[in-house]
Amino acid sequence: MTTSSTTTKSTATKPRPSTRPGPLGDLLRQWRAARRASQMTIALDAGISTRHLSFIETGRSQPSREALILIADALDIPLRERNTLLNAAGYAHIYTQTPLDDPAMTHMREVLTFMLDQHQPYPAMALDRYWNLIMNNQASTQLMGTFLAPDSPALQPEINAMRILFHPEGLRPHIVNWEEVGGHLMARLHREAIEHGPDEQTHALLDEISSYPGVPAGWRIPVPGERAPLLLTVHLRKGDLDLRMFTTITTLGTPQDITLQELRIEAFFAADPQTKSALKKIAATP
């Protein structure tokens, strides 16, 4: 509270308002467009006047740090992008990004390990915002080893869940309902590219996936309003092995660190008794 009060009163350290739109105004308009929200809607949710928000977007008014955080709350902007907004307004960022291997994250690593191990004999993995593998349980390692060679290019340069699914030498040849699964996941990547705002890494992943041979050209363009299935089952087949699974994705509640906010745990479940038995057998394999 002391820091906030000092920032509000110390107007000498604030950047002087511009008379024309700048990076901050551009960013706010981009986020409003991504959220399909009007100035009035965001202003009401943030508890400020529409006139004040309009002046901020056009550069005629310099927002306080507190006002900017209220606007970010109303726009549901992720912590990483909130730092970008603060920097664009001339303020230091306030949200940290602590590596998961940092000593401060010891307890969180223990919690994640516990969650993943408790899901045995079914696969589970912890992923970052860009679908890169951070942690996983033994069952997921054994499942990937069943379908992919250790030197598969789908596992390079790092293990990425989307790359594994879409790469022609990844899981894609083994996904029986590929059109359904691939189309759904590509639509999800497009949604995330919009939700993440101007994020180069998100768009780079989308461009990489779209460039793979065999990815339909129609998937490279987002389809607004496309309805997703109630529950998508992934059907994998290799030789006599036939698996049907669905997944859940868990995120942490009220995180105040970028790493923790972007963390997601994907857990696989058997969609039928045969898959349940097969996954138990795979997990028991040395």
List the helices and strands and how they pair.
Elements: H1 2-9, H2 23-35, H3 39-46, H4 50-58, H5 65-75, H6 79-88, H7 106-118, E1 124-127, E2 133-136, H8 138-147, H9 161-166, H10 178-195, H11 200-211, E3 234-238, E4 241-251, H12 258-262, E5 264-270, H13 273-283
Antiparallel strand pairs: 1-2, 1-5, 3-4, 4-5
Helix pairs in contact: 3-4, 3-5, 10-11
- What is the rounded distance between the termini? 55 Å
Report the major sheet.
5 strands, antiparallel
Name the helicity range.
40-55%
Which shape, going by the Cα principal axes? elongated
Tell me the CATH architecture of the largest domain. Answer: 2-Layer Sandwich
Within the CATH hierarchy, at the fold level, what is the topology of the largest domain?
Beta-Lactamase
Give the strand tally: 5
User: Residue ranges: pLDDT <50 for 5 or more in a row?
Assistant: 1-20
Please, could you describe this protein's structure?
The chain has 286 residues and is of the alpha+beta class. The protein has two domains: 2-88, 434 Repressor (Amino-terminal Domain) (Orthogonal Bundle), CATH 1.10.260; 103-283, Beta-Lactamase. Helices cover 47% and strands 11% of the residues. It has helices spanning 2-9, 23-35, 39-46, 50-58, 65-75, 79-88, 106-118, 138-147, 161-166, 178-195, 200-211, 258-262, 273-283, and strands at residues 124-127, 133-136, 234-238, 241-251, 264-270. It has a five-stranded antiparallel β-sheet with strand order 2-1-5-4-3, sandwiched between helices. β3 (234-238) and β4 (241-251) form a beta hairpin. The model is unreliable at 1-20 (pLDDT under 50).
